[in-house]
């Protein structure tokens, strides 16, 4: 509850943060309602089915973004692909952030040998070349689901989150206000949750955003080499499709441009949220903003 | 409330790279006793890096010494039962050096006081809690409406440090461990702070371990003084004795390195301040402070 008011207060103080959240919110809304939208476009039948319509229709009132080489409605494809991309981002973002935060807090707050072991482990994962391994894993596990790909990507992205957050925990845990909490009989977990965590929200946000973006683009990469999860279309696949079929020369530019614009918007929104959080939480910047 | 806080052969080592043995000894076989009655001020002076803050952390139970023990009422503070620990926690309270870093920037300053109320069960209802907080704020000469509901960066250093004193006032510990509490305050605010501390001693019977590197503050507070150098306490005695007849060569060195607050002793170099006030021993300007509420 107190966290909620804090969040509201935070948003009030940064226009960037508000804009970023609004863009992200709209995209999430679009993704949530994508089945309904796709259904409406199809008007009873599935608009993403192969040969649902004629091939390479140019954008028009019936097909806002035209159709592709299989006669699928591009608008419907983009809407559901965005939902897929956001899902993979959310899955990998949540898993790696939660894992990263837990490891970072245990290592950073407890210190000593626990920190040694965890940091070494994180370090090893960090230097493993991620993408080749991801390829190997996906090739091995045929017909993986979206969730499984998300988990696989998370395995490699949580150490980044853990590393950034751990260094922050290290610098925060020796703050005098932590000492004050300790002489006020606060327990370790309470200190972590009420004293450290709120101050780390911006870093956790950054960790989440970079893991999510990493996963979204990681999936794009997997799609390119044909190792993506079966039966789903994400934004990367549409872009790849557009490139490989030369859609641009056929006048089907939306197939290429729209997914890229969406990815860029997503990228911008997540970054604005990060910068906005930083702005609000950095007390010096806050003073300038005139709280 | 126990009557005694004792350090017995406390040693604190820290791992350090590039030094002989791979560690430094910040506190080396330190023993002393603080008595709750009669309430007193015991100053601990020494230069930077001599181990003063480390001792404070040991006494507050924030850092377990590598050898020796800190005893509260004759028992090792790291081996107390639940009830004894609760008593120790309430009875030994700090005032830290940096009045800004002591507050979590995420919360309003009230929280530090409410935490104390709740954790130590000082009040059963919100109304009595608020009453208590307001009473304690007034005791340190703060107007509750000027500080409550504010964020730390909206208050001055002096205000923030006095909120910490208000917290101490609420808890009424027998022992205050004050680690350079005035080093970041200007001269006038500093005097204010020290006066409140002396009030606490007189009115509420609190004993203070006052850590400082500033001898003029030691003079002002009076009571006893301990001199520490390189992790060892080399001298202890009443302020007047130690200051006038230092027995350890380091104490002499320390005394020689500061401007004499003795009006008969003249500076050899030119100084701008007209006359040092013998009573205040601070160079507080005669003009009013910039803000009416310090
Ligand atoms: N957590 C720590 N890890 C490693 N070394 C430490 C740690 N805390 C203190 N030290 C070292 O112990 C020595 C004593 O430090 P301490 O902070 O107690 O000195 P101090 O007397 O309080 O100095 P100052 O007047 O500057 O505050 C210093 O050499 C310091 O570098
Ligand atoms: Mg110190």
UniProtKB/TrEMBL annotation, chain A:
Record-level Gene Ontology MF annotations: dipeptide transmembrane transporter activity
Tell me where in or outside the cell this protein is found. Cell membrane
All residue ranges annotated as the ABC transmembrane type-1 domain in the record: 82-274
> Per the record, GO CC terms?
plasma membrane
Q: Where, by residue number, does the polypeptide cross the bilayer?
A: 21-41, 74-105, 117-140, 146-165, 200-222, 256-277
InterPro entries (UniProt xref): BP-dependent_transpt_permease, MetI-like, MetI-like_sf
List the membrane topology term(s).
Multi-pass membrane protein
Alphabetical keyword list: Cell membrane, Membrane, Transmembrane, Transmembrane helix, Transport
| Keyword Membrane annotated | yes
Q: Which family does it belong to?
A: Belongs to the binding-protein-dependent transport system permease family.
What name appears for this protein in its UniProt entry? Peptide/nickel transport system permease protein
Species the sequence originates in: Kribbella antiqua
Automatic annotation (TrEMBL), chain B:
Domain ABC transporter: start-end pairs:
5-255
UniProt keyword Zinc-finger, yes or no: no
InterPro entries cross-referenced by the UniProt entry:
AAA+_ATPase, ABC_transporter-like_ATP-bd, Oligopep_ABC_C, P-loop_NTPase
The record's section on PROSITE patterns has: ABC_TRANSPORTER_2
Set out the biological process GO terms recorded for this chain's protein: peptide transport
In residue numbers, the region (Disordered) covers 275-294
This chain's protein is named Peptide/nickel transport system ATP-binding protein
Source species: Kribbella antiqua
């Amino acid at each position: 509850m107190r966290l909620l008011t804090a969040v509201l207060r935070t948003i009030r103080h940064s226009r960037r943060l508000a804009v970023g959240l609004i863009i992200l919110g709209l995209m999430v809304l679009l993704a949530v309602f994508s089945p309904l939208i796709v259904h409406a476009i199809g008007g009873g039948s599935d608009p993403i089915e192969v040969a649902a319509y004629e091939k390479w229709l140019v954008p028009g009132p019936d097909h806002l973004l035209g159709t592709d080489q299989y006669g699928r409605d591009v608008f419907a494809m983009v809407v559901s692909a965005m939902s897929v991309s956001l899902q993979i981002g959310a899955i990998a973002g949540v898993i790696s952030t939660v894992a990263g935060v837990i490891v970072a807090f245990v290592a950073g707050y407890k210190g000593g040998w626990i920190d040694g072991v965890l940091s070494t482990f994180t370090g090893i994962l960090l230097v493993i070349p991620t993408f080749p391994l991801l390829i190997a894993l996906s090739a091995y596990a045929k017909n993986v689901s979206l969730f499984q790909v998300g988990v696989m990507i998370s395995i490699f992205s949580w150490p980044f989150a853990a590393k950034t957050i751990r260094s922050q925990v290290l610098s925060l845990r020796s703050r005098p206000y932590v000492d004050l909490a300790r002489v006020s009989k606060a327990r370790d977990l309470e200190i972590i949750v009420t004293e450290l965590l709120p101050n780390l929200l911006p870093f956790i946000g950054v960790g989440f955003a970079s893991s999510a973006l990493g996963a979204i683009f990681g999936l794009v990469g997997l799609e390119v080499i044909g190792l993506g999860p079966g039966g789903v279309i994400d934004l990367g696949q549409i872009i790849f499709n557009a490139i490989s079929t030369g859609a641009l020369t056929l006048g089907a530019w939306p197939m290429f441009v729209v997914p890229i614009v969406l990815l860029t918007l997503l990228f911008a929104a997540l970054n604005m949220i990060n910068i906005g959080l930083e702005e609000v939480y950095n007390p010096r910047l806050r003073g300038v903003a005139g709280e | 409330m126990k009557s005694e806080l004792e350090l017995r052969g406390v040693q604190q080592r820290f791992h350090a790279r590039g030094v002989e043995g791979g560690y430094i000894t910040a506190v080396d076989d330190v023993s002393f006793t603080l008595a709750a009655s009669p309430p007193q001020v015991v100053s601990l002076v020494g230069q930077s890096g001599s181990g003063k803050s480390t001792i404070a952390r040991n006494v507050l139970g924030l850092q377990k010494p590598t050898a020796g023990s800190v005893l509260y009422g004759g028992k090792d503070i790291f081996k107390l039962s639940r009830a004894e620990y609760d008593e120790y926690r309430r009875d030994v309270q700090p005032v830290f050096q940096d009045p800004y870093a002591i507050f979590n920037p995420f919360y309003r300053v009230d929280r530090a006081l409410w935490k104390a109320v709740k954790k130590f069960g000082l009040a059963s209802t919100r109304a009595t809690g608020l009453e208590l907080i307001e009473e304690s704020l007034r005791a340190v000469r703060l107007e509750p409406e000027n500080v409550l509901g504010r964020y730390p960066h909206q208050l001055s250093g002096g205000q923030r440090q006095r909120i910490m004193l208000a917290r101490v006032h609420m808890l009424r510990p027998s022992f205050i461990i004050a680690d350079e509490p005035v080093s970041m305050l200007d001269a006038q605010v500093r005097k204010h702070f020290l006066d409140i501390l002396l009030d606490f001693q007189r009115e509420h019977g609190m004993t203070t371990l006052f850590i400082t590197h500033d001898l003029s503050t030691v003079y002002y507070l009076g009571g006893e003084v301990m001199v520490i150098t390189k992790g060892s306490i080399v001298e202890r005695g009443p302020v007047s004795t130690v200051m006038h007849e230092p027995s350890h060569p380091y104490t002499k060195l320390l005394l020689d390195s500061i401007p004499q607050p003795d009006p008969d002793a003249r500076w050899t170099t030119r100084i701008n301040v007209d006359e040092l006030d013998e009573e205040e021993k601070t160079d507080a300007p005669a003009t009013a402070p910039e803000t009416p509420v310090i």
